[in-house]
C-alpha cells in the first residue's frame, strides 16, 4: 500500500482514476482540491484544500505522500504554473514518484493547448523523482455523446465534442485515406491501469495504455455496422488539415483538426507498455462499448 495524491481532483480523468483507486481498497488516497469535496470524503478519500500559489500549503498537503498523479487541466498557462508549483512542493515533501498531467499523447509541438505542458515535462525529468507519462490515445468515452442508452455511464464525465465521428449527426471526418491506426481507451480502464501501476517496482519514462487499436476505416465500419447508420464521409488530406488549422479561429475546432492531423501523422498509433504488466485488467473493446450505448438490437 502507498499513499497517493491526485491533483486536479475535479477533472474528468481524475474522477475515473479516483474511482479505480478507491475500488481497489489497496492504497490511501489523498485528493488535492481548491475547494471542499465532501462526496469524495464519504467514499473514503482524504481531501486537502490547497492554494497552488502557496508553496508552504502544498508541501504540507503532500507530507507522507509516496506518489503524485497530476490531473490538473486548464486552458492557458495555469496548467503549467500549477504543476510546476506542485512539483516543487513534491520535492520538498520527499515524494518518491510524480506523473504529470498528460492522459492523451505528448504532442507539445502539434497541439496548441499542449505546448505549455512541455516545460512541466522538462522540469519533471530534472526533478530527481521517479516519473512517468501516462499516454492512452483517444478516450473511448468521446463516442457516448448523445447515445440512446446509458449516455452518462458511457461518457464517464466527458463533456467535450466528438472527434473523427459524430454518431448522432452521422458524419465522419477521416484523415488521409483512413488507414492510420488509432489507440482508443476508456477512461475507466485508464483508472484501472494507473491503479495497477502504483504497485510496479519501477516506472518507465512513458507508460502507454491501449484499450484497443484499429484503423480509422475499421472504426467507421464498426460504427456503421453497430448503429445501422450510413455515415457521410469526408476525407481530409494532411495539406487540407494544415490549412484548416491555420485559418480556424475557434479553439475547440482547432484542437479537433490538430488531433486529426496527429492521427494522419501516426502519433496515435501507440504500442502498449502497461497492458502486459497488468493482465488482470480487461479493457472494454470498441465493439462492446458501441453495442452497449448505440446498438440497435
Automatic annotation (TrEMBL):
The keyword Oxidoreductase applies. InterPro entries: NAD(P)-bd_dom_sf, NmrA-like, NmrA/Isoflavone_reductase-like, PCBER-like. Signal peptide: none annotated. It holds the Pfam family NmrA. Residues 3-290 form the NmrA-like domain. GO terms for molecular function: oxidoreductase activity. This is NmrA-like domain-containing protein. It comes from Trichoderma gamsii.
